[in-house]
Design brief:
alpha/beta, 3-stranded mixed beta sheet, 22% strand, 4-stranded mixed beta sheet
Length: 223
């Protein structure tokens, strides 16, 4: 369940990986959500079954190379058997240790690794841009949200999706600029977009590209 200030009614998103999200306006009661899901259960089940019948991604379930396009790095991924689930960075190589080379074992390790890389790279990148825009976030969080690239709270906390590292550099930087500008204008008003345009002149096409990028995210990121 995701609360959205822009939502005017309850709605449903069904994702390619099988996840189901209910988007609700603020102050929606848990009972209202449960009643809504119950009334739409048949549609949800049918949609999930339809998605399951679609052709699967022809690419490998476990990536052997990950392109961190935002920071222009290419990482070779090597899988090794181990009773301890962990990873190890070796320069341009990532060693993934798991009891079995299967997605349900290795994907969580890859996600943990990507989140860690995000904290090391996206956070300082954001803070450098913050000085240029002359704003200061109260806190910076790096996570792996399934439906949002980023957000800025009323309290000044900026949350970034670590999968932004898979975006081209210009798109990733636009995302950071977008969220930083919300520290001045917590809306999408004309003044907000004017501020964004000062630091990202191609914001219109970049905004479209970033929103479309969800469809190209690998399964291990968005499951």
């Amino acid at each position: 369940v995701r609360i959205s200030k822009r939502a005017r009614r309850l709605s449903i998103n069904v994702f390619a990986h099988g996840g189901v999200e209910i988007v609700v306006p603020p102050r929606t009661s848990a009972r209202s959500v449960a009643d809504f899901v119950r009334s739409e259960r048949s549609w949800i089940d049918n949609t999930c079954r339809s998605i399951a019948l679609l052709p699967s991604d022809p690419g490998p379930a476990l990536p052997t190379r990950i392109e961190l396009r935002a920071v222009r790095e290419s990482i070779e991924v090597i899988y090794r058997q181990s009773n301890r689930m962990h990873y190890r960075n070796q320069g341009a190589r990532l060693l993934v240790f798991s009891v079995d080379a299967a997605p349900h074992y290795c994907w969580p390790i890859l996600r943990r690794w990507l989140t860690g890389i995000g904290r090391k790279t996206l956070r300082p990148w954001l803070l450098r841009l913050a000085k240029t825009i002359q704003v200061k976030p109260r806190q910076v969080q790096i996570r792996l949200q399934q439906t949002r690239w980023g957000s800025c709270s009323v309290e000044g906390t900026i949350s970034l999706n670590a999968s932004a590292l898979l975006l081209p550099t210009e798109q990733a930087e636009y995302l950071l600029v977008h969220e930083l500008c919300h520290l001045r204008h917590l809306n999408h008003s004309r003044r907000f977009w004017q501020l964004v345009s000062e630091f990202s002149p191609r914001y219109r096409e970049l905004d479209v590209a970033v929103n479309r990028a969800w469809t190209s995210m690998p399964a291990w990121v968005s499951y």
